[in-house]
Amino acid sequence: MAEACSGLCSNFATVKNPILCGRIITGNSTHRMHSGRQNFASVVSPQGREDFAPYSAPTPIPFGMDAFKKGWYTETGSLYSDQALSMKVEKILYHKKSKYQDILIFESTIFGRVLVLDDSVQLTEFDECSYQEMISFLPLNSHPNPKKVLVIGGGDGGVVREAVKHPSVESVTLCELDEEVIEVSKKYLPFMAKGFDSPKLTLYIGDGAEFVKNHPNEFDVIITDSPDPKGPAVCLFQKPYYESLKQALKPGGLIASQ
């Protein structure tokens, strides 16, 4: 499936008016399929903007097990209040509450395997490449020589998978708060998790927001691949976090955030 990603991406995602502005790429994005992260290519400039009011997404309506009894998974209350997402369920592969969040993986009829965190769809096997490639390739190909990359979040491994492919990248550090997301992705989403085997990867289990505070002037590219802004991920959408990202960059570095 991963090998077909490049051909699929032109059909499923577009990025409008990307702008290189100092250390940051900015862009408005449209995700036309079902990966769940519709604002994936939004990139923020700490030095050029002051409008860092915390983002607040509508609260999803819990799907409940009744949805599965009827053979469908339905997500409502996403970024657009007048829309809902339904997928026919073939089989529930994993469903458990970790220390931090509810983790669900199921096999759908059309979109393959689907990862859901706290009732919000994070990715589908069919079109995950459109998210992973755009959030990775934009900053990596806009930097003249990216050697050290930091990924915050992204426990499914998709961004790491793309980042380690870049010929100039020497090291990728992944900071993931919930180790269970990594483990279930290795087991049920191997097409995503293949990057975990790369010798370029250093894995850190812990709070990425705290990690960046202790690594000034270290990274060429920082990518935030976070879930929706709720629970422990709320801080990843607030001004202090972006200020910490800025000081963790080397001169000329780039930040990309979903």
Which SSEs are present, and which pair or pack?
Blueprint: H1 5-12, E1 13-21, E2 24-31, H2 66-69, E3 72-76, E4 84-97, E5 102-108, E6 113-117, E7 120-124, H3 128-142, E8 148-153, H4 158-163, E9 171-176, H5 179-188, H6 190-193, E10 201-205, H7 208-213, E11 219-225, H8 239-248, E12 249-257
Structure description:
By secondary structure, the chain is an alpha/beta fold. 24% of the residues lie in helices and 33% in strands. The protein is built from eight helices and twelve strands. Strands 3-4-5-6-7 form a five-stranded antiparallel beta sheet. A five-stranded parallel beta sheet has the order 10-9-8-11-12. Strand 1 and strand 2 (24-31) form a beta hairpin. It is globular. The model is unreliable at 1-64 (pLDDT under 50).
Summary tags:
12 strands; 8 helices; Spermidine synthase; 258 residues; 5-stranded antiparallel sheet; alpha/beta; Spermi_synthase
Distance between the termini: 23 Å
Helix % is: 10-25%
> Helices and strands: which structural class?
alpha/beta
Spans where pLDDT lies below 50 across 5 or more residues? 1-64
Task: Kindly state the number of beta strands.
Answer: 12
User: What is the ordering of alpha helices and beta strands?
Assistant: HEEHEEEEEHEHEHHEHEHE
Overall geometry comes to: globular
Q: Provide mean pLDDT, rounded.
A: 77
Strand order of the largest sheet: 3-4-5-6-7
Q: What fraction of the residues are assigned to beta strands by DSSP?
A: 25-35%
- Biggest sheet descriptor: 5 strands, antiparallel
The protein's oligomeric status is single chain
Backbone CA Rg: 17 Å
- How many alpha or pi helices? 8
GO cellular component, one term: cytosol
InterPro entries: PABS, PABS_CS, SAM-dependent_MTases_sf, Spermi_synthase, Spermidine_synt_N, Spermidine_synt_N_sf
Family: Belongs to the spermidine/spermine synthase family.
Pfam families: Spermine_synt_N, Spermine_synth
